[in-house]
Automatic annotation (TrEMBL):
This is L-lysine cyclodeaminase. Keywords: Lyase. PANTHER family: KETIMINE REDUCTASE MU-CRYSTALLIN. It comes from Nonomuraea coxensis DSM 45129. SUPFAM superfamilies: NAD(P)-binding Rossmann-fold domains. It comes from the Bacteria. GO terms for molecular function: lyase activity. InterPro entries: NAD(P)-bd_dom_sf, ODC_Mu_crystall, ODC_N.
Amino acid sequence: MTRILTRGDLLTLLDPSACLDALRDGFARDAGGAAVEGQRIRTDLPFPGTATALLPGLLPGVEAYTVKVNAKFPAATPALRGVICLHDGADGELLALLDSATITAWRTGLAAALGTHVLASPGSDVVGVVGAGAQADLVVTGLRRLRPLRDLVVHDLSPERAAAFAARHGGGVAGSAAEVAARAGIVVLATWSRAPLLDLPDVRPGAHLTTLGVDEPGKQELSPALLRAAGVLAVDDRPLAAAMGVLAATGLPAGAAHATLGELLRGDHPGRTGPDQITVYGPVGLPWQDLALSLLAWREAGRRGVGAEIDLLA
Ligand SMILES: NC(=O)c1ccc[n+]([C@@H]2O[C@H](COP(=O)([O-])OP(=O)(O)OC[C@H]3O[C@@H](n4cnc5c(N)ncnc54)[C@H](O)[C@@H]3O)[C@@H](O)[C@H]2O)c1
């Protein structure tokens, strides 16, 4: 039988703290690793969006895997739609079909919260958001579980989206990305931008920046000067960052990343070493993160009887 887990089902099943634990554990154990990174397929479409597939999501010691298929249509709401197939590793049985918009936002946003928290100054308690969308929502949700946040300031091309985000999370609206960076010690960018939104002079000494929107060739949120000035520039995966992430946008090689999130969480890299250092985290998102959260949701759904079961072979 295959369990169908909708957005509503997933929101009742997923717990941010349990998801943070699963993601922290995966990064600390280097769950993906280059050997099992698998394939990331992206193609343009004769429509205003792209089709992407990530496969397989694998975790050491887990006899299951995921295949994720996403539509990315920046002007749509939600912008990401698709499905994650969770398969049994023993015989390929399709255990679950999960709403990918929800799992993707949770795994991206909560993993980004870990990267943000580990690099930001311990006392930074004002978070700025540029791009008030699905991914940023979960970064703030995760960050609140990791450190106290005194204030939030948000900017979006859509004033309505910015206002709704500020109302949801408690905080105010800013008129530009530069205004956000002037007011916040932690800045999270999660947009569809193809040009830098922040340059070095915009950023406060000691600021931390998490750039999530740079996960495909051609996308950019931070200027090359800002990235080069970072005392710690961290990524989730060096080759992917150089091929299509924050390094690619600046023409930097894989070796230009000072650390990975795994190295930071394992203590293999010291992370921030001074209060005035600028730090940057720029992940592209890894397939094992989809498996980690899909498994949590599927197991919990089985325990609680959540989600319809269908027999696709009937
Ligand atoms: N790094 C990763 O692991 C990862 C994973 C999933 C999605 N993403 C990327 O994150 C980005 C955001 O995804 P989402 O699902 O939150 O999208 P979304 O459409 O829900 O939110 C994006 C928001 O950014 C705003 N925006 C777009 N361009 C802007 C600009 N130049 N200045 C200010 N605001 C702007 C939009 O109005 C929208 O409200 C996308 O680029 C997506 O591809 C990254």
